[in-house]
Design brief:
The complex is a heterodimer of chains A (157) and B (224).
Chain A (H helix, E strand, L loop, with lengths): L1 H26 L6 H21 L4 H8 L1 H5 L1 H28 L15 H11 L30
Chain B lengths: L12 H4 L22 H9 L3 H23 L2 H18 L9 H19 L19 H6 L11 H13 L3 H12 L4 H8 L3 H18 L6
The chains are: A mainly alpha (157), B mainly alpha (224).
Chain lengths: 157, 224
Amino acid sequence: MMDGKNTEERPAEEQADVMLQQLLHLKTFEMPDPSRMMRNKQNIMRQVRQTQSEKRKPLLDRLELNIPWFFAEPKYGIAALFVAFIGLQYAGMSARNSTTSTGIYTTTGSVASYQQQEAASNVVSNRYPSLPRNYQLFDNPQGNQTVVPAGFEYKEK
Amino acid sequence: MVGKVNLEPDENPEEKEEILEGEKTPEIEESPEEEGPPDAELVLKAQQGDVHAFDQLVERYHSKIYGLTYNMTSNREDAEDLTQEVFVKAFEALPRFKGKSSFYTWVYRIAVNKTINYRKKRNRKRALSLDSFDQDIKLDDAYHEMTAKGSPLRNISLSELQKKLNEALLNLSEKHRTVVVMHDMQGIPHDEIAKVVGASVGTVRSRLFYARRQMQTELSDFMK
């Protein structure tokens, strides 16, 4: 009895499915207005072109766009290459000079170090210690005397 | 019928969050056969900045994407906006498209995700704005059968039927409507739908079953 009920329900379900399929099939006949579709495609492509124009172009393309004269004539390109070559040569030369003429040379095992200005001035002042006030380096000048430091002997040949 | 869907996460990172469920990477086998150069060639050209190539792709798939968005929203203005957004988004994301799947299904996936997000953001209960029926409907066998003598549709106008159908569709959840539109209206097989929505075939079948039951209940007046 149960089986009989099921077999009755099944065709009813199948029939309902078929009817629903038919109803949904009718929706495929809904057709958009061709002119609206055309306008929609045009809008899409307009926006796509706008997006494309806003995209960042490669460096070479941007150069070509901004300085077309540079790319228009081969002679400009050759001239630019020549100038670039000269520039590179100059840069190389100056770099070479700086390494050959302004170096600080040390022997193996020793280190050249930079001494700060203050420390250096201390070294100089230590080398010339301040003398007491009563210590006279020079005699007071007398008439036509040649001023010579004290303790300095002048011998005429 | 339907081509491959590109779901590589790095190809379209913006779309990642729009994935319905699961994180599978579906691959649909073949793309629809069309006249003219193959999609892969057009895509390559478009990636190199050829807008005309992309124009050909738009021409090729516009009606399909519009059909999907229209049946999902039952509003032609929304469908037009969405179709536009889908193609522009596809163009923007094209550099990340590596061609592991076909362009059509990649775009299709974007369309499904965009439509669902669009409806989430906007008012779900928007007024219907429907395309008119083609006159050829009166030549259709199914239509004849349904409007035959004794049929409940005999005394119903086409516009009323259209309204009821669309309302019944809109009452479905997004997930259920997606499978109904893709399977019953666009003829996409279960396995391909599964790949697009990122669910198993069983889940798709189950959704389709419950969606149909709900629609049968909604349209019971026409199905006696």
